[in-house]
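thoughts on both lines:
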Amino acid sequence: MRFDVVTLFPEMFSALTQWGITGRACEQGLAQVQLWNPRDVCLDPRKSVDDRAYGGGPGMVMMVKPLEDTIAAIRASHHSQGLQSGPVCLLAPQGEIFSQKTAANILKYPNMTLICGRYEAIDQRFIDRNVDLQLSVGDFVVSGGELPAMTMMDAVIRLIPGALGDGESAVQDSFINGLLDYPHYTRPEIYENLSVPDVLLGGHHAKIADWRRQKSLELTLRLRPDLIESARANGLLSQEDERFLRTL
């Protein structure tokens, strides 16, 4: 999948493209990240991308033209490579909350353009004319869209077939089945008088699967009860799951 990222700070994305799982995915060609700085299309000597807000108030507002010219350059790049342009997404506090389901849906597109805002805001006319969807990583404010964009891209790239060393890792992640992941253990078997649960040492795969499912349900009920209600509403809980939940 290809991501075209509009950002005033393209250097930040080396954390995504050069390290870990996402870095390997980019190196192997499973994911492509193209970085576009709106200052590169500005013709004035100062490379201005922002100005004061009409009506007063604190902070500066990103201007329409540099962003629209950048979008035009991205679409021209797609056209030259025979690609159909995917949706334009703005990372913004007012956006829909990003989730594992959103990540899976994004993977259906061949490419996506991400707009990383800075300063106080982006001119609403750019949003109205160009943005197809808005996404947020939570109900809080950060200094720009770069970190949310990288978080979102990481979640999507993990789902690309071949990105993970073990394909089962993505299938077993938290939220894939609507619940939190079960606890994990590794060597040593005993640490500071704390032992690995006996069921994980017995080699009985059916019992291990049952234990993991129950621990997933238990953790989700304790830490994120809202996910239990959502899983129930979406038909993701079996009768056996419901019997176990009633014992907690």
Observations:
- DSSP finds ten helices and ten strands in the chain.
- Residues 205-223 form the longest helix (19 residues).
